[in-house]
Amino acid sequence: MTAMRTVEFCKVSVLSLVLSATMAGSMAIAQDAKPKSNPWEVFRFGFDAYRNGHKDQALQAYRDAAEQGNIGATWKLGRMYAEGDGVSQDDYAAYSFFNEIVQRDVEPGSSDERFIANALAELGRYSLTGIPGSPVESDPNAAREYFQRAANYGSPVGQFEIGKMFFEQKRSRSSIRQAGLWLKLAAEKGHEGARAMLGNLLFQSGKVVDGLAMMTTALERAEPNDRIWIRPMQEEAFAVTDEINRRNAIKMSEDMQSKTR
């Protein structure tokens, strides 16, 4: 009898030890899963949560990191509200986050400058159209200022928008030249809308093959929203080009696309 009790006691003791170890391990894992106090670590936690589909956790982590001064977290919040990604779509909330970013003091040459550039470009877009039901009204002059500042920071969106403004003026050689310079900068960074518009500018200036090739390449690679306006521009140029130049342009476009794959 005593031996049986001893065995049972040993079994209970071993079971207790196993349960204690399991609980301790679970607590350690749960503790590791919590966001850290460092804003960069909190941002990383939010990024991992977002990537794994836990957008509610990502949203809270980004908020916490943004409150601690993490500019990347503020950018992510702006994008989530702009796109209605994990939250109700709210352009004014997005505008507010982007505006908060451009108010930051950022060390020149730091990696955070890209957030300033992108936020300025977003503010420019909102200023062009305005935001219904909010204090943000359509203001083309303010939009141009935002785009110019974004372009100066190296934003391809800002460079494209400034180039587009000069392109649409077409009042002088100077404006056309400025359009070409800004569009070229944006196109070199992969902005397909800028590539298409620069191609159209070259086409109109007599560089038929180069221009048509750039428009054709842009049409193939652009996002659906940009294809809507690129397609008629490319098709019009294609229709008035002779057969030999068409073939040369298509071959050049194929070479352009193969080099960037």
Question: Which terms would index this structure?
Answer:
mainly alpha; disordered N terminus; Serine Threonine Protein Phosphatase 5, Tetratricopeptide repeat; 261 residues; single chain; 13 helices
Descriptive overview:
The protein is mainly alpha-helical and 261 residues long. It has 2 domains: 118 residues, Tetratricopeptide repeat domain (Serine Threonine Protein Phosphatase 5, Tetratricopeptide repeat), CATH 1.25.40; 99 residues. Helix content is 78%, strand content 0%. Helix 4 packs antiparallel against helix 5, helix 8 packs antiparallel against helix 9 and helix 9 runs antiparallel to helix 10. The relative contact order is 0.05. The N terminus is likely disordered.
Here the CATH topology of the largest domain equals Serine Threonine Protein Phosphatase 5, Tetratricopeptide repeat
Structural class: mainly alpha
Number of domains: 2
Poorly predicted residue ranges: 1-35
CATH superfamily of the largest domain: Tetratricopeptide repeat domain
Main sheet characteristics: none
Radius of gyration: 28 Å
Query: What is the general shape?
Result: elongated
- Summed up, the helix count is 13
Please give the CATH class of the largest domain: Mainly Alpha
What is the number of beta strands? Answer: 0
What CATH architecture of the largest domain would you give? Alpha Horseshoe
Distance, first to last CA: 79 Å
**Average pLDDT:** 87
Helix content: over 70%
Order of helices and strands: HHHHHHHHHHHHH
Strand content: under 5%
Quaternary organisation of the protein chains: single chain
